[in-house]
Design brief:
The protein has 11 helices and 14 strands. The strands form 3 sheets. Strands 8-7-6-9-11-10 form a 6-stranded mixed beta sheet, covered by helices on one side. By secondary structure, it is an alpha/beta fold.
Length: 280
């Protein structure tokens, strides 16, 4: 579906050299699988000379776990763009939150009965061993979590705080409150119905797309971006070619040139075939 006429975006680029892709809800099915069609489409990108880089709110380990099946070893953006990791595993860029702000935000989440997780580099820290969300997340990202008593015990850089709750309305209310209180130093965006990503304001997927392009000397005008959630909007807004997944909300797809099929209908592979490869 061509959305450029309705959202008055600048026309889509005629040349794509790099695809920056979200993972959950985009590259993966709802049960976190790469379909054969998706793997085949990734290979077609490689054959066409188009680089594929992943960007996600996931920690680095939760992104690297897909490299083998996709046959890629490329730079990627972790923690919603807060960490840019080079193809040798080196940290190219890291945008940490202000420590005091991070402590206050964490305490605000906890006061509202929202679970708070702390991420920095390859670290994942939580405060409640009985947190019912931990087992699911550990299975999804293939990483272990460290349990501490309070945020003051964590002495490393804080790149992302994850607010976790089944109350989506509450997460949206907290996002509004956080963004209002810390307009210059913190940015809160939902990455799913149950997860609220809280980072440095420049730590977003738009920043990540630009930085990943720099690794190849590719301008954002020749980069395609694809995603499904609010935290994908910063890269969809600026990409030379932007594609929203079929199940994404109107708030997301109004920032895209095209809307593909849903992630349960091989929408990622469809987008590669119909919107990206013709621009190789």
């Amino acid at each position: 579906m061509n959305l450029s006429q309705t959202n008055k975006k600048k026309e889509a680029t005629g040349k794509v050299k790099l695809l920056v892709s979200d993972i959950d809800g985009t590259l993966l099915t709802d049960d976190k699988r790469l379909t054969p069609e998706t793997v085949a489409a990734a290979q077609k990108l490689k054959d066409a000379g188009i680089h594929l880089c992943l960007v996600s709110s996931r920690m680095p380990q939760g992104i690297q776990m897909f490299f083998k099946d996709l046959h890629i070893l490329t730079p990627f953006g972790a923690l919603n763009g807060g960490e840019i990791i080079g193809n040798k595993g080196d940290v190219v860029s890291s945008l940490a939150m202000n420590t005091q702000d991070a402590h206050e935000v964490c305490e605000l989440l906890q006061k509202n009965d929202v679970k708070a997780w702390i991420f920095g580099g390859f670290d994942w820290v939580a405060f409640d061993l009985n947190d019912p969300f931990l087992a699911h997340e550990k299975a999804v990202v293939g990483a272990d979590v460290e349990i501490i008593d309070n945020i003051h015990q964590y002495k490393s850089r804080i790149v992302k705080i994850e607010g976790v709750s089944t109350n989506t309305v509450l997460l949206d209310e907290l996002a509004e409150k956080i963004n209002h209180k810390y307009p210059e130093t913190v940015r809160a965006l939902r990455s799913s119905d149950h997860y609220l990503d809280i980072t440095h304001p420049k730590a977003n997927k738009g920043f990540a797309a630009v930085e990943l392009g720099k690794q190849y000397g590719i301008d954002i005008s020749e980069i395609a971006c694809i995603g499904d959630m609010d935290n994908d909007i910063p890269m969809l807004e600026i990409a030379g070619l932007s594609i929203a997944m079929g199940q994404s909300t109107e708030r997301v797809h109004r920032h895209a040139h095209f809307q593909t099929k849903s992630n349960e209908e091989n929408g990622w592979a469809y987008a590669v075939e119909h919107y990206i490869l013709p621009r190789a």
